[in-house]
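Suppose you are handed a protein chain with no further information: no name, no annotation, nothing but its sequence. What can you learn? This example shows the usual starting point.
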Amino acid sequence: MRQAFIFRNLTPTAQLFLLIILVLLFAILSIAAAYIASVFIWGTGILESAADVSESNLNFLQLFQISNQIGIFLIPPLLLALISESNPSAFLGFRKPPIAHLAAAIVFILSIAPLINLLAEWNEALVLPRIMEPMADWMRAQEERAALLTNRFLEATGWKTVLINTVMIALLPALGEELLFRSALIGILKKYFRSIHWPVIISAVVFSAFHLQFFGFLPRFALGAGLGYLFVWSGSLWVPVLAHFVNNFMVVMVAYLYQQNLIDTGVEEFGKTGSPLLLAASVVLPALALLWVFSSQRNAVREETQ
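A reasonable first move is to predict its three-dimensional structure. Written in structure tokens, the prediction is:
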């Protein structure tokens, strides 16, 4: 789809600045929209407990989370592409992927879980210098609040809640975060660099840092880098979106099945292993999945040019 664009011939720096402005603007608007809707639905009393995640109305928290996902992650990259790119669809990677690439995405995300958990353990064991203790305390407080919020969502029972969590925790983040950090950010950074590696690495750093969870930085960085390579090597947004969705959907389902006493492993222990063989497989299989996407796409390009 080709589209008449408003901001013609923007430099990559200007386009990056525009993306930041759009994220900040729609973050503010999404927060305002959530509060206004909450007051309209539940009255002003709902705002008194809004800061306390453990006491806030669950429906309010769900509305707030969904509004933020749409405002911060979905709208800005879509709007950026529409107003600054002559071909928004191509820029965002709205390209139908081969089934083999989708299969590779599933293999990648399912097999990398032990490695991600190991990186999380290493990251949590990091000790910051004493001079940075106030910052470390602040970061831990942010992570504890984020974990408490996630647990509030996952601890709710019933299929209605599972469906809401599937949209709120799996679908919207998978689509929105991939649009922002892979499609838009990598798309802009590729204009700076001739190689695709720096755009992937930088976007993975930003993706991990954006969550404001230092003690989970390494696993998110590794996951972000893998999703970035799935995007640039496949040329399709839907490949990393599928991987991201499967990863988050597993969290939703494991939490539900654990609460129903159908499995013995909860979310915090899911994917952990002490087996050297499984840990080795969690490095080799994701790497092979990425290489398969890279080689198959390169062969496809060669056939098209012949």
